[in-house]
Design goal:
20 helices; globular; 322 residues; mainly alpha; 44% helix
Length: 322
């Protein structure tokens, strides 16, 4: 797959001790040049912020749509960018974003809400918007709330039950909520097993174990649950690598590390688990800032009685009891 990249990239800047995002780095086996930049825009890891600012700004100006995808990202760094660049706000994407800072944007501005997708948003603030809209609607207001059936929030289930809404079974089948499970278990003949195969809930696993012939292995490759990995590893010939690359779980990263030639980088670049803690930087930050002062404070004689509780070997609490 051809990846678009900026023609030139700036040298990697030195990490700042005061920037919390500096504590993350790419896994050692992943090259920065492998990543697809437009997918970094929606990667929620704070580690993606460095790549975003380091590589994408020159490239960003080429497409409004790529910019607008940042509005799907719930991270703090995405918030900072959007608030600094309100010209790139996309309310359709924001209406799907569960972050609390998105709820603040919509406060007092319900005219900006996209009513077709807000019902899919599991955030409590989104639930309040939908519930108020239902209560205050006039006969002329049409609410298309079928997305509620894919929403795992408890408030979504309450609305469905309160208004006796007719289930959309394929959406309900992939919803991991317990209330969705209760509905599916009472209507097993209506389940969509393709969508159920991507459902990470334990109740979904139990149904699939009783119906192994109905498992859709391609959809199972999207399932982030550890039990989905176990089933796939028992059926390695049924692994669909392009779909595994779209799986945002940690196990997908571990599996693809062993099968690097099968990685589809466009989807894989969105996985937050491609970033890990940069322990070398953390050590450097500690030694370059508060390490000496911290050691002096912790190992001061006044703290001797606390050493045993802190796990320092050679000290027993009884040694300091009167």
């Amino acid at each position: 797959m051809q990846k678009q990249q900026p023609s030139q990239s700036k040298p990697q800047p030195k990490k700042s001790y005061t920037d919390v995002r500096s504590i993350y780095k790419l896994r050692d086996w992943i090259r920065e040049s492998d990543l697809v930049l437009e997918s970094i825009y929606v990667n929620p890891s704070e580690g993606a912020a460095h790549l975003f600012h380091h590589l994408t700004y020159p490239y960003f100006q080429e497409s409004y749509l790529k910019h607008a995808n940042v509005c799907l990202n719930p991270s703090e760094w995405a918030r900072d960018f959007i608030l600094d660049h309100p010209e790139y706000l996309n309310y359709y994407n924001l209406s799907q974003n569960p972050a609390e800072w998105v709820g603040e944007i919509f406060k007092g501005r319900l005219d900006l809400v996209d009513w077709n997708v807000i019902a899919h948003n599991p955030a409590e603030w989104a639930g309040k918007i939908v519930q108020n809209r239902i209560r205050n609607r006039s006969s002329k207001v049409f609410l298309d709330l079928y997305h509620l059936f894919s929403n795992p929030a408890e408030w979504a289930g309450e609305i469905i039950r309160k208004y006796s809404m007719q289930p959309v079974w394929y959406l309900l089948s992939e919803n991991p909520a317990e209330w969705a499970g209760d509905m599916c278990l009472r209507n097993l003949h209506k389940i969509s097993y393709g969508h159920l195969s991507r459902n990470p809930a334990e109740w979904a696993r139990k149904i699939l174990e009783k119906n192994p012939d109905k498992i859709d292995y391609q959809m199972l490759c999207l399932n982030p649950a550890e039990w989905a990995r176990e089933i796939l590893e028992q059926n390695p010939k049924k692994m669909a690598w392009e779909w595994i690359a779209r799986n945002g779980s940690n196990w997908a990263v571990e599996l693809l590390e062993k099968n690097r030639n099968r990685i589809h980088w466009n989807s894989f670049s969105q996985n937050p688990h491609i970033f890990i803690y940069d322990y070398q930087f953390l050590r450097e930050r500690m030694s370059g800032t508060i390490a000496e002062e911290l050691m002096q404070n912790r190992f001061h004689p006044r703290n001797l009685s606390k050493f045993a509780g802190w796990g320092v070997e050679g000290f027993e609490e009884d040694d300091f009891c009167e």
